[in-house]
Write a structure and sequence with these properties.
The protein is α+β, with helices and mostly antiparallel strands and 185 residues long. The protein has 2 domains: 69 residues, no CATH class; 99 residues, Aspartate Aminotransferase, domain 1, CATH 3.90.1150. Helices cover 43% and strands 17% of the residues. The protein has a 6-stranded antiparallel sheet. Strand 1 and strand 2 form a beta hairpin. Helix 1 packs across helix 3. The longest helix has 22 residues. The radius of gyration is 18 Å and the shape is globular.
Amino acid sequence: MAALPGDARGAEAAWNQARLDVVLRQFRLPCPLAEATAIVLGSTGLGPGVAAPAGDVRCAPRLGVLFLEWRRTISSVTYDEGLAQRIRERIGERPDLTEKRMFGGLSFLLHGNMTVGVVGDELIARVGPDRTERALARPEARPMDFTGRPMRGWVTVSGPRLAQDAVLEHWITVAAAFADTLPPK
């Protein structure tokens, strides 16, 4: 999920929790609701979570399916269509360009490799493992982190600088240059 400031982060967490509660009730798990919630949130890095007690398999058979259902319900998070359009205009017409909904947002793939994407009002960019440190030195960038562990070779770009065309152009150029080094999928 995109990092949100203060109240917005709390509102997003509350909304995700409410959706999870609905899904958990639908699945009628034999373990307590709080325990199942903690296991699911802990496994996603979206909450403090707890590990399932050793040997406790009451929830295990259905937790995988439950997690996928919950992710489906929160994957309807909208993305900034204006930012997506700005990306389209800068990438231009490329025969190897495709768009795909992923991560609750919209991703742009070059010859099948994810290059940049929009999640909420933020840009995610695949800069490659060798350029990560240099990319993170820029003030608008931070590590991309959906699961509690930063994804090596990826950055999230946000803030007022993202509104500048030159900044957006920079990130698209860097990400496209990396994607062009990868074999087609």
